[in-house]
Amino acid sequence: MKELKRIGLAALLLGLAAPAAAEVAVNDPWVRAAPPTAKMLAGYAVLANDGEAERHVVGAASPAFEKIELHRTVEEDGVARMIQQERLTVPAGGELALEPGSYHLMLMRPHEPVEEGESITLTLEFANGETREVSFPVRRQGGGHSHGGQHHQH
Question: Which InterPro entries match (predicted)?
Answer without folding.
Answer: LpqE-like (IPR007410), Lxx211020-like (IPR058248), PCuAC_sf (IPR036182)
